[in-house]
Structures are given as C-alpha cells and as structure tokens.
Amino acid sequence: MIKITGKITENNYSKNIAAMLERLNQYIVLTEMEQYALQLVLWELISNVIRHSTIKKADVLIHLSTEDITIELIDHGNGFDWRSQITKAPPSLLAPHEGCGLFLIQQLATHVTFDDAGKKARVIIQRAKIEEEFR
Amino acid sequence: MIQITTNNDVMIAVFQQDINFETTRIMEEILRHHTYSNISRLQIDLSAVRFIDSSGVRLFISWLYPLKDRIHIEIIGASAPIKNVLSICQIDQFVDVK
C-alpha cells in the first residue's frame, strides 16, 4: 500500500494538491478517470476547509491500493455542519449558488464519512467503480 | 481567462484555464459583462480546460440555465472526465455536450 501525506494551508493548498498527485504518479499510473476523481475529491474537501473553516489548515493522508483510494482529511479548525450539506440530489438548476461539492464526492466515491464535529473526513474511491461509471 | 468572440448571432467562448473556486469569481464577472440578447447560438470551447470543480459546475448552471430556452448552447472539447462531471450534475440535459 502506498501512503502520501500533505499539510495544507491557505497559502499552499493548490501546489500541495498538485504535489501529492505527482508523488502518487511516481508509484502508480492512474487512469484519466481515477486521476480526475482523486483530484476532485481532494480539491472539494480542501477547498471546503479553505473557504469555511475557522483555521485554514488541514492534514491529508492518501492510501492507495490496487482496489481503492482512501483519502483522510483532518481539519484543524472547527469542522463544518456536514449533515446539512450532505445530499444525494444533483445541484438545483434553480438555485445555482447552493454548494454541490459533497454531491460530487458522493457520486465518485463508494464511502463518505465524517466524524460528529465534521473535522475528520474519510472518503474511499473504489477504483473499479470509477471505471464502471465511466463506461 | 475566457476569450469571447461574436460573429452575427453566434458567440464563441473559449475557456483558457481550469474552472475552480480560485477562478470562477473573475470568470463570472467576465461573463456578466456580455449581452446575450442578440445571439441564437453559444459555443463553449473547453479544449484547454483540464479541471472543473463544484464552483465551475455552479458557474455553468447560473450562466447557462437562464439562457437555455432561447439559445442553442453547446460545449465542445471537453475531456472525458469533465463530460462525466457535467453529466453527473445534469448540465447535459440543457446543454449539447459534444
């Protein structure tokens, strides 16, 4: 199993996401869909912290196996009210300013959980699922 | 960031970088300063775009959904993963994604 870690701050998040993806690519060749799904999940989780958290810092851990990709994010701030945001419905066409980041994560992942405080997120992307959805 | 040209009743919008929460605010300003009353067709070229996040999805919905009944809108040049995101968010229901 491959593990990649990153310490995210308001000033380095974009470069750090790119660096984590680049490090992963040194170990394994991800398909275009896997790469995009991983980038999108990372981007949505991290941008949520940067936009909404009281302390704009987070730790990220990515585990990669042949079956799945697991992303864990720990927000150093107060977390967020994920219960009010989590929805299975696609983004409303009539209310375009409502967020749809969690919806996208749910669509790409097989498993999405938060702790009670909304400070720790765990997302599992089953690699076969991504390719299946793509077909 | 976005190159917009209009020929007769056709507007072509070429996005030249990724559409994410860092870039959407400026892109929204650019798009807001154009008028769409005299066009019947809008072609959006995403050939240079590698990544769209949920902010980009919201940008497309807020920009395009109000236009959909009087303008034929098409997206060209989107990569397979971006097409997938547009489909997941049902944007392909009112935009012709080629």
UniProtKB/TrEMBL annotation, chain A:
| Taxonomic superkingdom | Bacteria
Keywords, sorted A to Z: ATP-binding, Nucleotide-binding
Q: Domain (Histidine kinase/HSP90-like ATPase): give its ranges.
A: 15-123
What Gene Ontology molecular-function terms does this entry list?
Answer: ATP binding
Indicate yes or no for the key word Nucleotide-binding: yes
Q: Which InterPro entries match?
A: HATPase_C_sf, HATPase_dom
Keyword Nucleotide-binding listed? The answer is yes
Under the heading CDD domains, the entry gives: HATPase_RsbW-like
Under which name does UniProt file this protein? ATP-binding protein
Q: Which organism is it from?
A: Anoxybacteroides rupiense
From TrEMBL, chain B:
Identify the InterPro entries for this entry.
STAS_dom (IPR002645), STAS_dom_sf (IPR036513)
Q: Where is the STAS domain?
A: 1-98
| One Pfam family here | STAS
Xref: Gene3D superfamilies: STAS domain
Q: Which residues cross the membrane?
A: none
Descriptive protein name = STAS domain-containing protein
Species annotation: Anoxybacteroides rupiense
| Upper classification of the organism | Bacteria, Bacillati, Bacillota, Bacilli, Bacillales
